[in-house]
């Protein structure tokens, strides 16, 4: 008699259940990175769109990336809420004596379910009417949370000037 024929039926059932469980776990573990990749791609698109809107001077769109409960910390300044962030951005865009442009360099995106953390560097170039340029390199971290409507918005950010 072969070993398989002598095996206890309960043992075969446990073995089969174990194989099934392994298959399910392998399948599910493959979906988590896909979901994380999708979240990362959505957040990257949101950041890129925000940069395009800001650089195009669309003051009606620059607040869209920030959640109502945002807390924004920039070294050397008080913590800003949604109103303060929006006021600063719209004031900058309405300044006719200077042109503000952002460039984005994403270093890393980490996804944790409904939260995404982005390590990045924003480079702000301010061109004065007389042609002088001021450049500010601002490394930081943005924390996004998926909102009830499915969009990703920044709930916290920390940045500083190099």
Question: How would you sum up this structure, described in words?
Answer:
This protein is 40% helix and 37% strand. It has 162 residues and is α+β, with helices and mostly antiparallel strands. The protein has helices spanning 3-6, 9-55, 82-94; strands at residues 66-74, 98-112, 115-128, 133-146, 152-159. Residues 1-5, 13-19 and 21-34 have low confidence and may be disordered. β4 (133-146) and β5 (152-159) form a beta hairpin.
Helix content: 25-40%
Total number of beta strands: 5
Radius of gyration (CA) equals 24 Å
Give the low-confidence spans. Answer: 1-5, 13-19, 21-34
Which class do the helix and strand fractions yield? Answer: alpha+beta
Order of helices and strands: HHEHEEEE
Average residue-wise pLDDT? 85
Number of helices: 3
Biggest pleated sheet: 5 strands, mixed
Global morphology: globular
- How much of the sequence is in beta strands? 35-45%
User: Order of strands in the sheet with the most strands?
Assistant: 1-5-4-3-2
Distance linking N and C termini? 76 Å
